Amino acid sequence: MSCETKSIIVGTAGHIDHGKSSLVEALTGTHPDRLEEEKRRGITIDLGFAFLEEGGVRFGFVDVPGHERFVRNMLAGAAGIDVVLLVIAADEAVKPQTREHFEICRLLGVQRGVVALSKSDLAEPGLLELARLEVGEFLRGSFLESAPVIAVSAKTGAGLGELKEALAAEARKIEEKNAGNYFRLPIDRAFAVKGFGTVVTGTLLSGSVAAGDEVELFPSGERLRVRGVQSGGKTEERARAGQRTAVNLAGIEHTAVSRGMVLATPGKFRKTRRVDARIELLASAPRLKNRATVHFHTGTAETIAEVRFHGGATELAPGGTALVQLRLREDVLALRGDRFILRQFSPVVTIGGGTVLDPLARRAAARDTGRVEFLETLEGGKPEEMLTGMTGRALLGLRMEEIVARTSWTEAELLQTAEKLIAAKRVRAVSREPLLLVPEARFAEVQKSLLEFVEKFHKANPLMRGASREELRASLGRRVAPELFRAALEDLAKRKALDVQGDVVKRAGSEIALQPEEAQAKDQIEAAFAAAGLTVPSVKETLGKLAVDARRAEKLLQILLREQRLVRVTVELVFHREALGGLREKLRARKEAGGARISVPEFKELAGISRKYAIPLLEYLDRQGVTRRAGDERVIL
Predict the structure, then answer these.
(1) CA–CA dist 262, 452 (Å, integer)
(2) Is the N or C terminus of the chain more exposed, i.e. has fewer CB atoms within 10 Å?
């Protein structure tokens, strides 16, 4: 296919036996009915497909059932329709399924179409004109109000040329789907082809796919490899958005794939059972009660849903709209902006439809007073407003993968929007790799909490150099991401509001100021351990002899330990650094004299200490890499 060829999906719509399939065959030369029962009964039961290239446009026709019992199959084929071909028999005019199909196309956001008055050869001129008038009245005020209405006959060929021209004219007005976005293909058929294996078909909604690509199957999450792709019965190097596409999959049996599943770019989206949405109820529908059970159709998927109204509403009147949460019975892949149809649980008739606003909605809660405003922002806001709203509601910050899954923005689109907000100081990127956004106000709030904690710590602990990083981190609780803590602390240090020295965080410029009696007590502690050499007294005994209280004495000891004038070997054994330095010198001298190994008795004799000190000291020296245990001896390193 040349790069100039435009791919357009045409979906038929209309009442049973109004000649949709015959008309598609007359246009394309291919009869779309593919099941023996369909051919025998003369009605379309499931989806049929046919193709036509005309005037630089490749049309993919999706022929859908007209019988009310098979409307669910019609809905599966409506995914991705660009142009609706509304088929109305000239001898019968508008019938019930004409109305239902038309409403479904409108609710699914179809904007363009052509009306074919089929079986025109069976209608007298007066009856044909009457049918035109009825169709005009039916379509008044709708998206098809100005659509061409063309009398055609699949039997005689009358009007087929004009119909092709009308379809081509509509096709030229349609903007092509985005082949540069993430790949997504709702599956409407899955079958096995001898020699090839599993093949699935669908309308390629966005992105592209080629042989060798890895794809993800939703909702299972299974990763699969594409063996080949076709469109219109021809092998394609790469199929692009807007085409009817057949994908040959490796590594899975066709029985494990079914209609309603979706192939997509791996690792970008998430299945869901809860979506927030805007719904519209048809004027002909009954009132919809809160917590009503309905049939939910999106793409080719169908499941049961419970409707929960946002904002305290208890019901929706016919013709009205509302913001709702739909709780789905089964997992589906739904993205922001996806259209869906709602059908009454029983009897099963179409009652409305809507648009997905948040595909990964939180469970609705009465205290979530900002939910309605947030959904209105997702519905009509600019990308910057949407991203600001999402960031503000993410307690632990908003990560790139979360944004993509909820918006289907490409990473380039996402980063462009984020940079605008960062420059405007509305959000802060507390991490770039991977991206993590928080509101600027939240960042400032965390920094304020850190400053307040450090200030309180200094007041409560005047003899401590500062708080540890771990204490500071714990003070914020679990609702602060580690990246936010690190970024907030680094920014405070950069602005010299706090001083970070290794694991210790203190107020900038703060120093320990000892009272005269505290300075004297500190000197006494150091002197006591220095004089003791390697036969030190217990910590409790040493601190108990000081004039200051036990709490301050312990803090003075901590200062000496941080200054590394004293070294704690065990909880109760503290040595002066010079004593330990002297011990290292003795071991070095022994090794140089040829004594590379030393036993515990020899170590006791060398150090002039008892076993009480020898074993803890040897274990300390092992940890420090001065010695290494070898059986009952130590190797001096």
Answers:
(1) 51
(2) C
